[in-house]
Design a protein that fits this description.
The chain is α+β, with helices and mostly antiparallel strands and 460 residues long. It has 15 helices and 18 strands. Helix 5 packs antiparallel against helix 6 (149-161), helix 7 runs antiparallel to helix 8 (211-228) and helix 8 crosses helix 9.
């Protein structure tokens, strides 16, 4: 083990407090109620510091107790923190901030803005707050959730982004429960590093039921956290240490996000221990008079004069939800709201929230509630009727096309003809025979048909 690693571990042990009294009554796991209140206190220390020292700028500079614009001059931290307020139960402040945003935020300005960051933070934050408004006691206008001031603000911001929107893709390959960077076309390892942004992956694995692999990968990442008191931006796996000029930790949420999802799936107290360690180390290392500062270097815990808005939008939110299993976000469908919209009656708030990249929860039921053109739905229904009618009449259809030869049983959906039979069938087919709509062979798994945003299962 490198000597500098021993120094870092010793420094970490000296700085991080022993957690006597913090675990639950039986000593087996951290007490969720205790850490729920600790996380709430973290949020308000950062949030109040932003309001007092930085608003209406995008972000707080916690070391100098002032503010600066970073991603477009939209009071970004206030937008990012809005749905966290409701998750923490602060209805009155949510209502106040909604009014402040309507009165102060203007997207019709000439600034250089990040398309990606504005999309996930501003558009996502406004959409989420719009869909949560009724739960927060905001007086919504007729036609909600299909209309409303926050929805119009989100649409205005999104329209500014559309001309420049693009997306990048990066591939990874697995090695011993780590995921390495590889060359896209050759598949060879380009850098044997773990990047802190990748720590969301175990949470995603848990959502598809791959729990064992998720926990093994998570525990790898957790060992890095325990080594430094945070996740460095880059971690060299073979060397077991940080990468030069990538030693910082800007209070990112990804490992905590994975812990929340995995704890929902398993109830493993190890995941609460990560939450405990995150609270204790962030407070010990990062907390300053005006909020929480980015950790510039995890080796010596030097700080940087910045508090990213995602600290309030994501890190604190996921920590709180990890320790709050009865939060409305975790709803299992046992409660819901019935809403009348211009497009009919629909159900909202039944759970199954989808978090965007900035941890802004979106209720997918709202997409169904607010279909603008019923004609599209009717068109889909007509197509589906035609589809199933064609399947019912397939036997009759095949008898006609094979009338010149001996009769054969109709092929079942999903049955592929052999090359010989396929050539014979093509020879027997009339010259002007039309190809039936939507008649692609079914796959071995349950096939899905998506039309105009609606998904149908082939359940025949």
């Amino acid at each position: 083990m490198p000597f500098r690693l021993l120094i870092s571990l010793g420094l970490l042990c000296a700085l991080l407090p022993l957690h006597h009294g913090a675990p639950g009554p039986d000593g087996s796991a951290p007490d969720p109620a205790h850490y729920r209140e600790r996380v709430k206190a973290m949020f308000y220390h950062a949030y109040d510091s932003y309001l007092e020292n930085a608003f209406p700028f995008d972000e707080l500079r916690p070391l100098t107790c002032d503010g600066h614009d970073t991603w477009g001059s939209f009071s970004l931290t206030l937008i990012d923190a809005l749905d966290t307020l409701l998750i923490l139960g602060n209805v009155s402040e949510f209502q106040r901030v909604v009014e402040v945003l309507q009165d102060n935020v203007d997207f019709d300005i000439d600034v250089n803005a990040s398309v990606f960051e504005t999309n996930i933070r501003v558009v996502g934050g406004l959409l989420s707050a719009h869909l949560l408004s009724k739960k927060a006691g905001v007086e919504v206008e007729a036609g909600w959730p299909c209309s409303g001031p926050l929805l119009r603000m989100a649409e205005e911001a999104a329209r500014k982004l559309l001309p420049e929107y693009n997306k990048a893709i990066r591939n990874y390959t697995r090695f011993d429960d780590w995921y390495l960077w590889v060359q896209m076309y050759k598949g060879t390892v380009s850098m044997p590093v773990f990047q802190s942004l990748e720590a969301y992956w175990p949470g995603l694995q848990s959502l598809i039921g791959d729990i064992d692999n998720a926990m093994r990968t998570f525990l790898n990442y957790y060992t890095v956290w325990k080594q430094f008191g945070g996740l460095p931006e880059f971690y060299n796996i073979p060397q077991g240490y940080t990468v030069e000029k990538r030693e910082g930790y800007p209070l990112r949420p990804e490992l905590i996000e994975s812990a929340m999802y995995l704890y929902r799936a398993t109830g493993d107290p190890t995941l609460l221990e990560l939450g405990r360690d995150a609270v204790e180390s962030i407070e010990k290392i990062s907390k300053v008079e005006c909020g929480f500062a980015t950790i510039k270097d995890l080796r010596d815990h030097k700080l940087d004069n910045r508090m990213e808005s995602f600290f309030l939008a994501e890190t604190v939110k996921y920590l709180y939800l990890l320790f709050d299993p009865t939060n409305f976000i975790h709803n299992n469908g046992s409660t819901f709201d019935t809403v009348i919209t211009p497009y009919g009656e629909c159900i909202l708030g039944a759970g199954g929230y989808i978090f965007n990249t900035e941890a802004h929860p979106i209720d997918p039921a709202a997409l169904h509630c607010c279909q603008r053109l019923k004609e599209e739905q009717w068109e889909v229904e007509d197509l589906m009727r035609e589809f199933y009618s064609l399947k019912r009449n397939r036997s009759k259809f095949q008898k006609k096309t094979m009338s010149s030869g001996p009769w054969e049983p109709p092929t079942r959906p999903g049955t592929l003809l052999s090359p010989e039979n396929h050539d014979q069938a093509r020879e027997r087919k009339p010259a002007k025979q039309k190809v039936p709509l939507l008649s692609c062979p079914s796959q071995p798994f349950t096939s899905k048909l998506a039309l105009l945003g609606q998904v149908f299962l082939d359940s025949s």
